[in-house]
């Protein structure tokens, strides 16, 4: 693990992404990490070390005597697709849901998830997906054994040997380990020991540990680890850890959420408790974690632009003319073929903005809980599933699109779209944030600060907050003028 | 898990039962009383509370390996809410689960015998009226669970014999 170095003057954070290897140099002082400069190079997939060496050199931090970095380095990687997890559980709304949330909170990509009993066909599909880890859950403690036994027996017949983490019914633990004795299998405590009490920490830590100890070498990171003298974490875990650190170290900042939008996916993190305290609301489903991450694999403003159009079709049909739609579709065709396309004209920027707004709205809507209005003999009542995001007042926006954002009233437009999620005549209310302030990560520094949480927890959090820019909006302006 | 003796019936410590009030019914008091009575009698009670759907009862029973689902209905819509539960259980692999139902199951003063028969026909194992003694219900549940276990053991033995021959 990365230990905090003794009185270093500078520290480097580095991220090996699928397209770019990025790095930033920070000066360390008692309160903050002062951003000095950043560098970027194309990720050299055949030999990752070349790109890494180049960015360190570009930062001017290559020690000519040792030919290594002159300063300590913390790094993350999502090269070669990041960390792939297949989740297996029983009931989709119960153990399978918790298994997915656990994998996501460890910074993984959940490539597929399987509920109830696995079939031979599922096993072939898993073999085809060749995941890094299979997270196997099912049953509360002392609960279901039949499905677990069935699933384990089928998994035991697989030709490949992925890492398996068992986090299900503890009564089955020995039997599972015995049946899977030919596999690298790790048993941890149950992610759902009782129906109303998810308990994911051990499984989450184990995923990170397995990633470090076994998977990174398969991703060509062995050389990089040797050269830097440090071990990596999955890139999304860096952001997750930053969100945790901000919540813990900057309590005055209050509850918040963070949206990380890329070309292929949109990640959304909420940092607020799943309070279930209103007396006239009936709460359903598993209590959700205070820091929750969801990943929308179909929402991204380049690779997945066409599925963004699908997701936002209702909104587009209502608000855009046929000519506007045709122009938008042409643009989408262009950018999905050339995913490194950067907008050239104001029209292009307009299209990008529209795609971004849809990604954001859909990601927030899918993350948020839902209330349904029902009428009972006690009168009007609500049934709530999922987390209520309405008390949130702050949203951090990060990702390539937001770092280049110059639009003066972007947040106002988005605010209008998010409000439109709830229709006045509907019996279903999405618990999306309202009256929110938007903070822009305009140098795209947050994932890099996330890496530094493991060495400088409080300082990384303070620096992240300090460096955000508040986006102007109608709502905010009116508050200011009122003052 | 250990076995212990209770009355005439040998029950497994902490057999799980799922408890809840079905449909749009929000009578919460009786639900709390039932939870306490069955927990004190040695069951591990998973109480889903009020306004529980059939699917929620079944999901909880699958994950917890419950031996029985205990359904209450007080607001007269019981027949509508409870119909189809048995077939859904079979469909979801809970072939052997005990289904109990009790409360004001229909509107109006219908002879309880008729009501009971109606719910037995729907596939429920036992039907209770509001004034039934809860301790008696506890004893019946213990007896029924034991019987299910005996049946399962016998089925296992039969299977082994068939294989051996």
Would you mind describing this structure in some detail?
The complex is a heterodimer of chains A (483) and B (165). Chain A is of the alpha/beta class. Chain A is built from 17 helices and 22 strands. In chain A, strands 16-14-13-19-21-22 form a six-stranded mixed sheet, sandwiched between helices. Chain A has a five-stranded mixed sheet with strand order 3-2-1-6-12. In chain A, strands 8-7-9-10-11 form a five-stranded parallel sheet, with helices on both faces. Chain A starts with 9 loop residues before the first strand and ends with a helix. The model of chain A is unreliable at 475-483 (pLDDT under 50). Chain B has 165 residues and is an alpha/beta fold. Chain B has a single domain (3-164), classed as 3-Layer(aba) Sandwich (Rossmann fold), CATH 3.40.50. Helices cover 46% and strands 20% of the residues of chain B. Chain B has helices spanning 29-40, 54-64, 78-82, 85-91, 112-121, 134-164; strands at residues 3-6, 9-12, 16-21, 44-47, 68-73, 98-103, 126-128. In chain B, strand 6 (98-103), helix 5 (112-121) and strand 7 form a beta-alpha-beta unit. The longest helix of chain B is centred in the last third of the chain and has 31 residues, at 134-164. Classes of the chains: A alpha/beta (483), B alpha/beta (165). Chain A binds chain B through residues 90-91, 93-95, 116-117, 138-140, 142-147, 171, 192, 194-195, 282, 284, 374-378, 381, 383, and chain B through 1, 14, 16, 24-26, 44, 46, 49-51, 56, 59-60, 62-65, 75, 93.
Break the fold down into its secondary structure elements and pairings.
The complex is a heterodimer of chains A (483) and B (165).
Chain A: E1 10-16, E2 20-28, E3 33-42, H1 48-58, E4 62-63, E5 68-69, E6 73-77, E7 84-88, H2 95-105, E8 109-114, H3 120-129, E9 133-136, H4 146-156, E10 163-166, H5 173-179, E11 185-187, H6 201-218, H7 222-228, E12 232-234, H8 235-249, E13 256-261, E14 266-271, E15 281-284, E16 291-296, H9 305-311, H10 313-319, H11 322-337, H12 346-367, E17 370-376, E18 379-385, E19 394-398, H13 400-403, H14 410-419, E20 428-430, E21 437-440, H15 446-451, H16 457-467, E22 469-470, H17 474-482
Parallel strand pairs in A: 1-6, 6-12, 7-8, 7-9, 9-10, 10-11, 13-19, 15-18, 19-21
Antiparallel strand pairs in A: 1-2, 2-3, 4-5, 13-14, 14-16, 17-18, 17-20, 21-22
Helix pairs in contact in A: 8-16, 9-12, 12-14
Chain B: E1 3-6, E2 9-12, E3 16-21, H1 29-40, E4 44-47, H2 54-64, E5 68-73, H3 78-82, H4 85-91, E6 98-103, H5 112-121, E7 126-128, H6 134-164
Parallel strand pairs in B: 3-4, 3-5, 5-6, 6-7
Antiparallel strand pairs in B: 1-2
């Amino acid at each position: 693990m990365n230990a905090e170095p003794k009185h270093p003057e500078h520290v480097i954070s580095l991220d090996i992404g699928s397209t770019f290897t990025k790095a930033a140099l920070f000066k360390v002082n008692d309160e903050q990490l002062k951003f000095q400069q950043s560098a970027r190079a194309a990720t050299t997939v055949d030999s990752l070390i070349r790109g890494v060496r180049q960015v360190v050199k570009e930062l001017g931090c290559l020690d000519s005597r040792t030919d290594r970095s002159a300063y300590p380095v913390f790094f993350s990687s999502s090269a070669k697709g990041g960390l792939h997890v297949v989740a297996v559980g029983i009931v989709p709304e119960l153990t399978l849901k918790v298994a997915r949330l656990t994998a996501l909170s460890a910074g993984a990509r959940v490539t597929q998830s399987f509920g109830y009993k696995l079939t031979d066909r599922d096993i072939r599909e898993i073999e085809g997906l060749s995941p890094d880890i299979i997270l196997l859950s099912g049953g509360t403690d002392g609960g279901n054994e039949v499905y677990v036994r069935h699933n384990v027996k089928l998994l035991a017949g697989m030709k490949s040997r992925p890492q398996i983490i068992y986090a299900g019914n503890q009564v089955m633990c020995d039997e599972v380990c015995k049946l899977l004795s030919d596999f690298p299998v790790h048993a941890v405590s149950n992610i759902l020991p009782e129906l109303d009490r998810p308990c994911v920490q051990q499984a989450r830590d184990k995923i990170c540990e397995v990633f470090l100890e076994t998977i990174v070498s398969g991703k060509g990171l062995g050389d990089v680890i040797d050269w830097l003298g440090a071990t990596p974490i999955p890139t999304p875990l860096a952001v997750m850890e930053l969100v945790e650190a901000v919540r813990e170290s900057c309590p005055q900042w209050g509850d918040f959420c963070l949206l990380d939008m890329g070309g292929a996916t949109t990640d959304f993190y909420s940092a607020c408790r799943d309070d279930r305290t209103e007396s006239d609301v009936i709460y359903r489903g598993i209590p959700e974690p205070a820091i929750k991450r969801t990943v929308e694999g179909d929402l991204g403003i380049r690779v997945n632009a066409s599925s963004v159009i699908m997701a936002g079709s209702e909104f587009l049909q209502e608000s855009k003319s046929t000519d506007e739609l045709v122009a938008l579709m042409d643009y989408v065709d262009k950018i999905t073929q050339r995913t490194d396309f950067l907008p050239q004209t104001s029209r292009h920027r307009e299209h990008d903005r529209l795609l971004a707004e849809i990604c954001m709205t859909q990601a927030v809507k899918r993350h948020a809980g839902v209330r349904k209005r029902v009428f009972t003999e006690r009168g009007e009542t609500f049934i709530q599933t999922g987390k209520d995001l309405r008390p949130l007042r702050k949203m951090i926006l990060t990702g390539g699109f937001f770092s280049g954002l110059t639009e003066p009233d972007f947040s106002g437009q988005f605010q209008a779209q998010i409000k439109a999620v709830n229709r006045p005549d509907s019996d279903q209310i999405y618990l999306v944030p309202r009256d929110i302030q938007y903070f822009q990560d305009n140098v795209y520094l947050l994932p890099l600060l996330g890496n530094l949480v493991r060495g400088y927890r409080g300082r990384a959090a303070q620096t992240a907050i300090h460096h955000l820019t508040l986006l102007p909006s109608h709502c905010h302006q009116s508050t200011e003028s009122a003052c | 898990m250990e076995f212990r003796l209770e009355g005439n019936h040998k029950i497994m410590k902490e057999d799980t039962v799922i408890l809840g009030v079905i449909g749009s019914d929000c009578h919460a008091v009786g639900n709390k009383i039932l939870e306490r009575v069955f927990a004190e009698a040695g069951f591990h009670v998973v109480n889903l509370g009020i306004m529980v759907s059939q699917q929620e009862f079944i999901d909880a029973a699958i994950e917890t390996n419950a031996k029985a689902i205990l359904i209450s209905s007080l607001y007269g819509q019981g027949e509508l809410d409870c119909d189809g539960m048995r077939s859904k259980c079979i469909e979801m692999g809970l072939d052997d689960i005990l289904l109990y139902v009790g409360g004001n199951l229909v509107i109006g003063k219908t002879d309880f015998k008729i009501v009971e028969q109606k719910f037995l026909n729907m596939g429920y194992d036992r039907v209770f009226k509001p004034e039934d003694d809860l301790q008696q219900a506890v004893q019946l549940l213990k007896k029924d669970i034991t019987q299910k276990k005996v049946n399962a053991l016998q089925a296992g033995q039969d299977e082994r014999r068939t294989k051996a021959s």
